[in-house]
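User: Hey, my collaborator sent me this sequence without any context and asked if I could get a structure. I don't really work with proteins. Can you help?
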Amino acid sequence: MSDQLPNPAGGPARPYDALLLLSFGGPEGPDDVVPFLENVTRGRGIPRERLKEVGQHYFGFGGVSPINAQNRELLAALRKDFAEHGLDLPVYWGNRNWAPYLTDVMREMAADGRRRIAVLATSAYASYSGCRQYRENLADALATLAEEGFELPRVDKLRHYFNHPGFIEPMVDGVIASLGELPEAVRAGANLVFTTHSIPTAAADASGPVEDHTEGGEGGAYVRQHLDVARVIADEVAERTGTERPWQLVYQSRSGAPHIPWLEPDICDHLEALHGAGTPAVVMVPIGFVSDHMEVLYDLDTEATAKAAELGLPIRRSATVGADSRFAEAVRELVLERAAAERGEPVERCALGLLGPSHDLCAVGCCPARQARPAAAGADSPYS
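Assistant: No problem. I've predicted the 3D structure and written it out in structure-token form, which is a compact way to encode the shape of the chain:
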């Protein structure tokens, strides 16, 4: 979905002639909820009646996930930033699970004559669901276009941006603002609780390149990257406020079968433990999410906040990055650094923390699926 006319590749973005914002998608009305969940769970054999139960989270918000509206805001921020900095690069938007569907948008891009596409996924970290599955989606879309006779564009997924200053700095501001909203009597003793989506421990251990894989629930790249971001934010908040605060990485939004181990502790269990230990207040920091979509609004703003109220524990939830202008600037920098690298030029890459900038090209064996499937935009891509 693009509101810009085709433009030839050129200028600082060369060889890229378009940017694709690739996201999860979400329902935009009550009638969309069950079909959307059928898309999300396709192939898992989940009965429709069970999907209706799961959909209650969405029905409680009028059947509308905020994610599509937030993607529209991010699109507007990206186009504004690009225009203000003379970057003549059209921006399209496609989703995995709801309209505008990725394949439809890729078809539009091919028809517009796009031949080299940079892809920004709305997931900042390494994991199967946050990286390789999007690459599989891209391969599926390209396979469909090939069957339809289109000349296939090349797609390059931009690197993981979890430690880019433009992603971290807005979250630091959000934490400080949330601390300021706590009652003054408990503010100094508030703990920071960093949250992200729980995933199966086996998937966490296998996240990232092969050299990052672990065994025994240690977490691989997925956990390591989140811990690095949490540490950077906690240190910056301490420097700016003059107070060091206890912090921990916890998990939310588990959706798997009970017998399969997932990353723990759960946010609500952790709040109970903090309360039992006498913690006076908490700021929840959703570092695993780019915007305030349903996992944030329900699992944190509704469920976890209700648990804190039940415990009598003062709590605030800090803001996600969303369409912050610094994040839009970071995306522009990611595009330009990758473009320069593709042209064979020296590249300076921004990254905070201990891990350094992530790789441009996902290696063979990176974030593997349980069943091997073609994935674009990587070393093992059939669409190089």
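In plain terms: The chain has two domains: 11-26+65-159+323-342, 165-317. You can pass these tokens on to your collaborator as they are.
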